[in-house]
Specification:
One of its GO terms (cellular component) is membrane. This protein has five helices and two strands. By secondary structure, the protein is mostly helical.
Length: 138
């Protein structure tokens, strides 16, 4: 079943907002590599430099894939997994001092919302998307 017509326009707008925002977030990993690596180290991630670069690549490629409609299942799946894992490893609000809990909870919930959006794109990833590059593994 193809997603086209008015639904196709709304899907395109949603893909652009969702995908390009995430790609920009990934680009931020590279533009602020030292700060992002320090934060990952502070959070206790192993190989924080590598993890910062790897997560930046996942966000950039996944976001651009959703925006362009290229490899939508792979792109959406990557974003869903990354954001779900990041929510629990980077923003465990229940394990920080009380004065940090609200900020961490906001970031945790942001990651969960992104996970939900990525899962929605994953659910429709096998369909033909209007205004899409149209390359796919599935």
């Amino acid at each position: 079943m193809a997603v086209d017509g008015d639904a196709g326009i709304f899907l395109l707008l949603g893909r652009l907002l969702f995908g390009l925002t995430l790609a920009f977030m990934g680009l931020n990993h590279f533009l602020n590599l030292e700060q992002m690596t320090g934060y990952a180290e502070f959070k206790g991630l192993p190989a924080p430099g590598f993890m910062t670069i790897a997560s930046g690549v996942m966000l950039v490629l996944g976001g651009l894939g959703i925006a362009a409609g290229a490899y939508p299942v792979l792109s959406a799946g990557t974003l869903a997994v990354f954001n779900f894992v990041a929510a629990f490893t980077m923003h465990a609000f229940w394990s920080v001092p009380e004065d940090q809990q609200q900020d961490e909870m906001t970031q945790f919930l942001k990651n969960m919302v992104i996970t939900g959006g990525a899962l929605a794109f994953l659910a429709i990833g096998g369909q033909d998307w209007a205004y899409a590059v149209g390359v796919s593994l599935f």
